[in-house]
Every structure is written in structure tokens, then in C-alpha cells.
Amino acid sequence: MMRVLVIILFGSLVCxxxxxxxxxxIIERTMKFINGCGIAGKWHAKYVAxxxxxxxxxxxxxxxxxxxxxxxxxxxxxxxxxxRYTKVNNDYYLGFTVAFNNAHLGNSGSVSxxxxxxxxxxxxxxxxxxxxxxxxxxxxWQNSKIGKAVFTRVSN
Length: 156
Ligand SMILES: *[C@@H]1O[C@H](CO)[C@@H](O)[C@H](O)[C@H]1NC(C)=O
Description:
- This protein is 21% helix and 53% strand.
- It has helices at 2-17, 20-35, and strands spanning 41-45, 49-57, 64-74, 77-88, 91-102, 106-119, 124-133, 144-153.
């Protein structure tokens, strides 16, 4: 029984490997998926946040992917982040959003959007953010702030 299973498994492996171009592409995609993109990993911007990023390839296009990750503004306070980027050579043009509502602190009534770029030569990610906080209706005209955050890699 075991031997039959092994033969069937091996046979199907050989069959899928036969059209070499196709299976190489699958291997390449799998490796890229495992390794993530060049900006995957942990980053820190002083006084702002520590973020970790993962990338999900867009099957229909090259150089543009979906970003996911975690935004932490305290060791025990995390929020999901979601975004997109497009890549030119080794530079990444990226943007993502964080909605400040989690189980730990509840709904803070605020959201941030960041856009910026990772410059391969600078090895840092320079972003500008706009943060909107809930205010009383008469203060809606001043419910948003803009700022700059420069993220550098956290080694670990
Ligand atoms: C705006 O929201 C952020 C994130 O929830 C919070 O840290 C900050 O204190 C808020 N600012 C104001 C003025 O409410």
C-alpha cells in the first residue's frame, strides 16, 4: 500500500515537472512568496511606530504588490496595516493605511495614511502621513495633521 502511494506521488511530481517553463515559474513564485519583497521585515521611525511588512505578489502584474503588516506604537499595542506598492529598479513607492481600532484600546476614532518611498541607496523609507482624528463637528476643519516619518530597518 505504502509503495503504491509513493509511486503515485513520485509519478505526479514528474508529470508536473515535465513542462519545465511552467514549473520553474511556480518555483520562482513560491520562493518570492516565501522570501517576501525587498521591504519585507521590521522598520522603526522614532516617536512614530515600529512596523513589520509582508508583501503579496499581484499575479497579474510585475513590480506591484499588496502590502500587509503590523503597526505598533507601544510594545503591547498593535494595529493591522494594509497597502500597495510599485517597484522601480530597487526603489519601492508605497502607501498604506492604519485604522486605530483594536481589542487592546478599542476605537480611537482615528486613521492614518502614509505614502512614501524606500530608497535603496539611502536604505531608508521616507514617508509623509496624514492622520485624521474624531473631533466635535465644529472642529472638523482641523481634524487632520500631516507629518513626516523616516523608517529604518530594525535588525533581528
Ligand atoms: C489622534 O489619534 C491618534 C491615534 O489613535 C492618537 O495617538 C492621538 O492622541 C489622537 N490625537 C488627538 C488630538 O486626539
